[in-house]
Amino acid sequence: MTDRYAVMGNPIAHSKSPQIHSAFAKQTGQDICYEALLAPIDGFSVQAQQFFGGGGKGLNVTVPFKLQAWQLADQHTERALQAGSVNTLMMTDQSQLLGENTDGLGLVNDILNNHGGQIEDKRVLVLGAGGAVRGVLGPILEQQPKTLVIANRTLAKAVQLAELFQGPTMVEGCGFDALDGQQFDLVINGTAASLQGELPPLPQHLLAANAWCYDMMYSVADTVFCQWAKEQGAAKAPDGLGMLVEQAAESFYLWRGVRPKTQPVIEQIRSQLS
Ligand code: ATR
Predict the structure, then answer these.
(1) Is the CB of 266 under 6 A from ligand 1?
(2) Is residue 108 part of a domain?
(3) Angle CA 89–111–68, to nearest 5
(4) Are 69 and 85 in contact (CB under 8 A)?
(5) Ligand 1: distance of its center to the CA of 66 in Å?
(6) Domain holding 55: CATH number?
(7) Distance between CA 68 and CA 49 in Å, rounded?
(8) Do 98 and 127 sit in the same domain of this protein?
(9) Ligand 1 centroid to 256 CA: how many Å?
(10) Residue to mutate (ligand 1; options 63, 161, 191; most atoms within 8 A of CB)
């Protein structure tokens, strides 16, 4: 019997997840169907429970429901506990709803495997301190950067996140003004500024020689952050399309136990953007 999966969000019409998972299923010969479901802003839990009650096997969860998905889950993976949010739900054989967060792995896999980058031993700056950033900090820190700075418009949120993720790597939270005079090898934009076509107020000379930048957002043309990175001489400045496909691949692997090839799917989705 065909197993049912879906992505739930609001809005959801723009979601590329159905195309990505259909491509994974075709490539790996898995018998699944995957649809995009719009949940009412105040009705995520009810709709998710209906989906699983009706035999659904797994859900991807997107904006603005990742926190509610965390609350709905009966069990959490270590990564979901760290992230404080869930982007993947799976009904287990014991009828328990398992919550996972694959966003951070998606980001790290894209930087390391698709672009040939490195996080280990690098001075990493993450811009933003919202839910999207919290979701990726654990896997970034697993790569053992030399230092990790979180800079945010609202200072208190950066400081709070830095405290939460303190460990073997020194993690510091600051405002954008405190970046003046500092240099980084990798700058990751996790603010929502790109969505509004805006750029966080970043000082000149922020990038060390051969520094990389990465925008967790993606768009048809370069995002304003990717444009800024190129102007500042970044060695590479990919956008987050690869992260989107990689996080989907991790969800697919959790659900199906099969690892799809991501490169052809990234190319397919990129060509459909333009
Ligand atoms: P998300 O789930 O996308 O992380 P969020 O939790 O609302 O959404 O967080 C949005 C992040 O983008 C925050 O770090 C926000 O900064 P504040 O904490 O100061 O609100 C940041 N952000 C949004 N618009 C921005 C802008 N124009 N310039 C700089 N930062 C911005």
Answers:
(1) no
(2) no
(3) 25
(4) yes
(5) 16
(6) 3.40.50.10860
(7) 12
(8) no
(9) 34
(10) 191
- Same domain (yes/no): 255, 227: no
The pLDDT tens digits of the residues spanning 206-246 come to 999 999 999 999 999 999 999 999 999 999 999 999 999 99
In a domain, 107, yes or no: no
Which CATH number fits the domain that encloses residue 143?
3.40.50.720
Residue 173 domain-assigned (yes or no): yes
**The domain containing residue 149 runs over which residues?**
116-237
Query: Catalytic amino acids?
Result: 66
Please classify residue 274 by burial: count the beta carbons closer than 10 Å to its beta carbon, then call 0-12 exposed, 13-18 middle and 19+ buried. Answer: exposed
pLDDT in tens, 68-105: 999 999 999 999 999 999 999 999 999 999 999 999 99
Give the separation between CA 199 and CA 250, rounded to whole angstroms. 30
pLDDT tens readout for residues 9-67: 999 999 999 999 999 999 999 999 999 999 999 999 999 999 999 999 999 999 999 99
**Same domain, yes or no: 131 and 225:** yes
Share of the chain above pLDDT 70, in %: 100
**Integer Cα distance of 153 and 200 in angstroms:** 8
Tell me the average pLDDT of the chain.
97
Q: Is residue 47 part of a domain?
A: yes
- Among residues 247, 242, 249, 251, which one has the least CA distance to residue 270? 242
167 and 80 within one domain = no
Q: How many domains does the chain have?
A: 2
Rg of the chain over all Cα atoms, to the nearest angstrom: 18
